[in-house]
Design goal:
The chain is an alpha+beta fold. The protein has one domain: Heat Shock Protein 90. Helix content is about 50%, strand content about 20%. The chain is built from six helices and seven strands. A hairpin with a 2-residue loop joins strand 6 and strand 7. Helix 3 packs parallel to helix 4. The longest helix has about 30 residues. The radius of gyration is 18 Å and the shape is globular. The protein starts with 7 loop residues before the first helix and ends with a strand.
Length: about 210
């Protein structure tokens, strides 16, 4: 892998920053909702605040469950993860009014790092359709060595050159930060799994693959 190296502590710190970035919005909304409930005497405002707290708590929980596997240890060394569980947490994290997920993988147990790679591929693919659209996950091959293809289709879907380079294992000359660390981490996972990750335009869709 070319480009700058990164110390273990720096990698851990930047991944933590990435997780905090995902969580700060729903947690902040919960705090705001609690403040409204404490200070307002209007029942309509309290009802609105309670709805906000419920929705934001659900969002925070979904993000934590996803990040626990995508970035965390998620079990002991050599652990396996059920792809059915991976689908469930991916839907909770990614699906909303704008983005839908089609999951065409079998429900089997797979090595932890290969599932972590898949979840990070989904994150990378989701960034290519900022206005929303369809994410489709298909298998490449079968069994524990199965590879993955994530197709992102949506308005103005496009390959992000810097992200594509990082995903392919080229960190370039720029310093890694909390925004660049996630595709860089995906490349590390791909290398650990003995596969090559890449991103390319296929027609009007973006395809992120690893095999």
């Amino acid at each position: 892998m070319s480009g700058p190296s990164i110390a273990t502590l720096d990698l851990a710190a930047l991944l933590c920053s990435r997780v905090c970035h995902d969580l700060i919005s729903p947690v902040g909304a919960i705090v705001n909702g609690l403040e409204v409930m404490e200070e307002s005497k209007d029942e309509a405002n309290k009802t609105f605040a309670l709805d906000l707290i419920k929705k934001s708590a659900g969002t925070a929980s979904a993000k934590l469950q996803f990040c626990r596997i995508a970035f965390g240890a998620a079990g002991s060394a050599g652990a396996q993860i059920d792809l059915g569980d991976a689908e469930k947490i991916s839907r909770g994290f990614l699906e909303d009014d704008k983005t839908k997920l089609a999951w065409n993988l079998p429900r089997i147990l797979m090595p932890k790092n290969r599932v972590k790679l898949l979840l990070n591929m989904l994150l990378v693919a989701g960034q290519t359709i900022p206005r929303g659209g369809q994410l489709t996950v298909d298998p490449i091959g079968a069994g524990e060595t199965m590879g993955f293809k994530v197709t992102a289709a949506g308005t103005n879907a496009k390959v992000l050159p810097a992200v594509a380079a990082l995903l392919g294992g080229d960190a370039g000359s720029e310093a890694l930060d909390a925004h660049r660390i996630q595709p860089f981490y995906a490349a590390l996972l791909a290398k650990e799994c003995g596969v090559k990750a890449e991103m390319a335009m296929v027609g009007e869709a973006v395809v992120v693959s690893a095999q």
